[in-house]
Amino acid sequence: MNAGSQKLSIREKIGYSVGDTASNLYFQIVMSFIPIFYTDVFGLPAAAMSVMFLVTRLWDAINDPIMGMIADRTNTRWGKYRPYLLWVGLPFTVVSVITFVTPEFRDSGKLVYAYLTYTLMMMFYTAINVPYSALMGVMTSSNVERTKLSSYRFVAAFMGQFTVQSTILYLVKLFGKGNDSVGWPWAVACLGGLAFALFTIVFFSTKERVYPPKEQKSNFRQDLKDLFTNRSWLMIGLATVFQLIFIVLRSGSVTYYIKYYVQAQDFNFFGNVTHLSVELLTTLFLTTGSVAGITGAIFTSRFTRKINKRVVYGGFLAISAILSAIYYFLPPTSILIIYPLNFILSFFFGTVSVLQWAMYTDAADYGEWKFGRRATGLIMAASLFMLKLGLTLGGAMIGWVLASFNFVPNQPQAPEALKGILMLVSYMPAFFGIVGGLCMIFYPLTNQMMEKIEADLKDRRGKNQ
User: Fold this and answer.
1) pLDDT band at 1 (very low <50, low <70, confident <90, very high)
2) Are 384 and 237 in contact, with CB atoms under 8 Å apart?
3) Angstrom distance (rounded) from CA 429 to CA 433
4) Which domains does the chain have, with CATH numbers?
5) Cβ neighbours, 10 Å, residue 106
6) How many CB atoms lie within 10 A of CB 79?
7) 169-219: per-residue pLDDT in tens?
8) At residue 396, does pLDDT exceed 90?
9) How far apart are CA 101 and CA 381, in angstroms?
10) Which residues contact 219 (CB under 8 A, 6 or more apart)?
């Protein structure tokens, strides 16, 4: 059997997947908690936060593809992509902790500090996640095995999400003892240390098996040309932007939604009145969503066994969006609807998250099949850029909407501000989710086509050995 197409052991699948637990320890902090950290703890105006998120992405437009090209051209005895998991993990942890320090500066000094530290943190995120994502495309050439690996990966990713969502507010409270500016860096240090350990496990438990064609020569311009004429990458990349705007708007606004709209309340459960704090309500909302997402991730391969990936991805993203829109009409006391609805929505979205990266590795195979050149690192770097573009636009929209509806942090909100928060958690993300689902109409790769591509590439690689 061709080494590149062999089945992966459960040990290697688990070893690879814990890297996404590590990545999501950071990603969930940035997606769900950094907006409210910057406005309510650090002290940035919402509008200034939005501009910062946008400006810092200008560097990512250059940084992400450069990192992909560097990784593609790295040659060590450990492979092209694995070494970065060992080299970058510790500095990434240190910079992330510094990002959540609130310095005793004037407003202008704090803004400069936020720009510098946030930019550095996202650069290190790129430096470790581009190689990590590319690694999945070179562990095996089997698109079926990669879909299974992606399912493992996203079960692990949701475990990271669950860990953050179930612990971080309590860690902040534990270490801060009422002072959140003290609690946040210590909480991030705990989770960052765990992430460093998990990235190290990935390095020692995985192996690279798929290599570019031997005759392929280094050519930056040709790699970029291949990327932007790869229709499958263009469609899943565009869908990713809308998908990320959808989930960032929802996740980033949930903390505001619970704190200012739902609020702490007494809940009558079969005659027993229980007080539900904001911390408990927020943690419960996010963690039950993570459990549902894990369940959806587990069932992904069953959905795609008979149905094309693009149909499952587009359809489930659209369903998630429609369910999100319902939140605009729910009163704050409708706990018995708010939480089960989030569970169902998160189940469908869990499958979407799995398929996103499996489809990127399919796009890498398609590129090699069509153009005779393989640039897995560049494709994953460009894909990560699309992901971060969605992350940025979603985060910026949160700040814009809050500012335009006159949000005032740490105060009871006027009806106008509450309306803005409701928009952020309901029909605004719904719009982008539906558009992302529609992009799949133009995605060209079917299950049958991927079987042909896999067989052709296996035959080519066999002849070149």
Assistant:
1) very low
2) no
3) 6
4) 12-210+218-464 (1.20.1250.20)
5) 9
6) 20
7) 999 999 999 899 999 999 999 999 999 999 999 999 999 988 776 666 667
8) no
9) 29
10) none
3-state per-residue secondary structure call for the chain? CCHHHCCCCHHHHHHHHHHHHHHHHHHHHHHHHHHHHHHHHHCCCHHHHHHHHHHHHHHHHHHHHHHHHHHHCCCECCECCHHHHHHCHHHHHHHHHHHCCCCCCCHHHHHHHHHHHHHHHHHHHHHHHHHHHHHHHHHCCCHHHHHHHHHHHHHHHHHHHHHHHHHHHHHHHHHHCCCHHHHHHHHHHHHHHHHHHHHHHHHHHCCCCCCCCCCCCCCHHHHHHHHHCCHHHHHHHHHHHHHHHHHHHHHHHHHHHHHHHHCCEEEEECCEEEEECHHHHHHHHHHHHHHHHHHHHHCHHHHHHHCCHHHHHHHHHHHHHHHHHHHHHCCCCCHHHHHHHHHHHHHHHHHHHHHHHHHHHHHHHHHHHHHCCCCHHHHHHHHHHHHHHHHHHHHHHHHHHHHHCCCCCCCCCCHHHHHHHHHHHCHHHHHHHHHHHHHHHHCCCCHHHHHHHHHHHHHHHHHHC
> How many angstroms separate the CA atoms of 126 and 119, rounded?
11
CA distances from 285 to 35, 290, 291, 340 (A): 18, 9, 10, 9
Q: Which residue has the tokens 């409708």?
A: 334
Say what the pLDDT of residue 464 is. Answer: 59
And the tokens for 315? 């359809």
Q: Which residues neighbour 323 within 8 Å (Cβ) at sequence distance 6 or greater? A: 341, 344, 345, 348
Closest CA to 336 of 269, 278, 383, 391: 269
Whether 301 contacts 151, CB under 8 Å = yes
Which phi and psi (to 5°) does residue 272 adopt?
-100, 120
pTM of the model: 0.75
